Amino acid sequence: MTKSNVKFHSHGGKRIILIVDDEMINREILRHTLEEEYDILLAENGEEAFEIVKEKGDNLNLILLDLIMPGIDGKTFLRNIKADNEYLHIPIIVMTADDKAEVECLELGAADFIPKPYPPKDVIMARVKRTIELSEDRDIIHDTERDALTGLYNREYFYRYAEKYDHYHKDIETDAIVLNINHFHILNERFGKAYGDEVLCKIGQNIRDSVAEEGGIVSRRDADNFLVYCPHREIYADILNQATRDLVSKDGSLKIRLRMGVYSNVDKSIDIERRFDRAKLAADTIRNNFNKSIAIYDSKLHDKEMYAEQLIDDFQKAIQDEQFEVYYQPKFNIQKDQPVLTSAEALVRWFHPDLGVISPGIFVPLFEENGLVRQLDGFVWNKVVGQINKWKKDLGIAVPVSVNVSRVDMFEADLVENFKILLDKHKLTPEEFLLEITESAYTEDSDRIIDMVKQLRSIGFKIEMDDFGTGYSSLSMISSLPIDALKIDMGFIRKAFENGKDTRMIEIIIDIADYLNVPVIAEGVENKEQMETLKNMGCDIVQGYYFSKPVPADEFAKFLVEKKNQA
Ligand code: C2E
Ligand code: MG
Ligand code: MG
Predict the structure, then answer these.
(1) Do 441 and 408 contact (CB within 8 A), yes or no?
(2) Domain that holds residue 293
(3) Which residues of the chain have pLDDT under 70?
(4) What's 109's domain CATH number?
(5) 325 CB under 6 A from ligand 1?
(6) Residues with a beta carbon under 5 angstroms from ion ligand 3
(7) How far is the CA of 466 from the centre of ligand 2 (A)?
(8) Which residue intervals of 268-298 are DSSP H helices?
(9) Which ligand is nearest to the CA of 402?
(10) 3, 132, 191, 545: least surrounded by Cβ within 10 Å?
(11) Strand arrangement of the beta sheet that strand 16-20 belongs to
(12) Concatenated DSSP letters for 494-547?
């Protein structure tokens, strides 16, 4: 781990000063002057002083240095300390009778001077105090610039330095690069946080080493996300290969892999953060892609970005004009002789006046990035409770409806309270309003999500884990999950029936659900063969085009009427 620059003071809480002077009388005068306020260490010459610096290192708060000494003299000592990365930030006050030496010593990095013969005690005290304060302030600034774990620039300062970099290198073509560790949370879970930290440090250092020479700068933006701003290059594999140099997982079983997004030869007229958004956009295209670890921002992504921007721009008006509509897709229990309607899933659609119908698969992830999804989900939840009541009133029947709760919603402090208010207002119970939370939310922000899920369940909400199988939950996590149903991700149904039938994955998931004692819901079931097979395997509930596509509320009423007639 990189050293922090916050210093530890001696046991009594006093700061430590090293006095280096070959004349005993000088050492004693200074000791006398300072020992009430400071802890004092003494050295007779440069060699001795070096030993002390090596031993105390960062804990020294100040060195008072005589210039003329036998052996290693003051200037040589000063030069050596300032050339050493580890010690160069220890402030040094030079003591000399020769005022001509001042400029040279300042250039060598001295912080201040005390003339000989010594000035009055309070002058010495004042200079010493001020020098220590200044140096500590500077250390604090240094600390606020840096990420405490890796010692790399933190996000905010990184952006500032990148701007400075541009200022001084106007004509140099530059690349913005983001790097992210694939499935970092698995590493953390399997080998512990301390090991995870070690990996982050090592990777941070490796990346810095590979771009430092040409003047590139590096940041740990947050978690396992690294940013690089460096002169343009044609080949990026080197950075990637270097980054994982000397790294294998603790027991050698897990290869640590990174993915990298590059916005090459950046447009310097756009905002610095936006340049890195572009690099991230590229990186996101190869998330979960085992064959590709470098992605470049290109014109296709550019078009996508422009489209995304339009959607974000249009969002508020769309909410105002009610361009969003909630569709409902039925879920059937298939373990009875006849399929029985058990509930519905609410799925939002956007009827955009210029762009036509837009699928939530496109705009939800976008609105998750900037928090707009909270507003959207609030809108949807309101519509859903209103609709449940309307069905009750008009048809005398309703079924529970599940809504999709974004991971972003789960970070809202008053989520539980808001749900309560919403249901109270419409006199509904939590059994009528089910919540779907995607598995990857659990794995990415597990503590927070699990805590929130527990709160929601404690007041009666039922939680369905959505898209199960795509979030890379670990087995240990699964066994302690607070959930009420597992929804198998559509991808598994698709794959199982693709080329010949291979339903092993589905069987495993059904086994997991049995173990957890919760029902399994299969989504994306499109034909009879899939339905029958799932039924025989013991899957409880099915949702998919085989029964119905998501339909507007009016159309959904027919399922309710049917159910009413069955009863
Ligand atoms: P999801 O929650 O996993 O929803 C299931 C998706 O599968 C829906 O896509 C549904 O239309 C589709 N689907 C259902 N049966 C079949 C089938 O048999 N075949 C095929 N090919 N597809 C089927 P949709 O409506 O496009 O929604 C996509 C995703 O957007 C949802 O995945 C959900 O994660 C998110 N989403 C939808 N509505 C909302 C919402 O109101 N709030 C939030 N936060 N997310 C939402
Ligand atoms: Mg869902
Ligand atoms: Mg799903």
Answers:
(1) no
(2) 155-297
(3) 1-13, 475
(4) 3.40.50.2300
(5) no
(6) 466-467
(7) 6
(8) 272-284
(9) 2
(10) 3
(11) 39-43, 16-20, 62-66, 92-96, 112-115
(12) HHHTTSS---HHHHHHHHHHHHHT--EEEE---SHHHHHHHHHHT--EEESTTT
